[in-house]
Design a protein that fits this description.
Elements (H helix, E strand, L loop, with lengths): L2 H10 L6 H12 L3 H14 L3 E3 L6 E3 L17 E8 L2 H10 L4 E5 L11 H4 L2 H10 L5 E4 L5 H14 L5 E4 L15 H9 L4
Parallel strand pairs: 3-4, 3-5, 5-6
Antiparallel strand pairs: 1-2
């Protein structure tokens, strides 16, 4: 496999990127000067060095000299520790935070479950979530902020069964989100309404 095909294949594994778009990325890079490519290479090389995964919510965050294992959200004592919102991915976390309407804590599942998934434990961080629920006695309500589609509903149903315990309430975002919508692309006002009108 030549260099163009190899890089095309790498880009095609990115979320939402097909083979044609991946190849366009490669040809675009070929038109850039040497310093631009060096900047890109250096940025990719530094990505892992300067980011960390929060030990509580499992999202990735920029260290910025931060030495704690907790991100700024999880270490903020002003957050409502009785609320835990479960989101599929880091981008969904960011979308909800930008809405400014939620002041509780988070857990990032790392994905969602297709309807006929045979090994759900390998697709999402269900073991980490169980440990979080078991050890954190402050959590009273779990809010499912899943994509408004069949895969999102399937994920919420699976997680509910896995973490069900006495005294724990479950709610889902209200249908300010249209069916089939992806959380990451929802505008702040829509997310705010969905959160305010969540169902139990």
């Amino acid at each position: 496999m030549n260099a163009i095909d190899k890089l095309t294949e790498i880009f095609s594994h990115f979320p939402g990127i097909g083979p044609k778009q991946a190849r366009r990325f490669v040809y675009y890079l070929l038109t850039r000067d040497e310093s631009s490519l060096e900047t890109l290479t250096r940025s990719i090389d530094e990505l892992k060095k300067h980011t960390a995964q929060c030990s509580e919510c499992k999202r990735y965050f920029a260290k910025n000299g931060h030495v704690s294992a907790l991100c700024s959200t999880c270490s903020d004592e002003r957050r409502d520790s009785s609320l835990l919102m479960i989101v599929p991915r880091d981008a969904d976390f960011e979308a909800v935070e930008k809405s400014g309407s939620y002041k509780g804590l988070y857990f990032v599942l790392g994905g969602s479950l297709p309807i006929l998934e045979k090994e759900p434990e390998k697709r999402i961080r269900i073991k980490d979530l169980k440990l979080r629920i078991a050890k954190d006695k402050n959590i009273k309500e779990v809010i499912f902020a899943m994509n408004a589609n069949a895969e999102g509903e399937n994920t919420a149903d699976f997680v509910k069964q896995a973490i069900k315990k006495d005294g724990l309430e479950f709610s889902t975002l209200g249908r300010g989100l249209s069916t089939g919508a992806e959380l990451e692309y929802a505008d702040p006002e829509t997310l705010k309404n969905a959160l305010l009108h969540r169902t139990k």
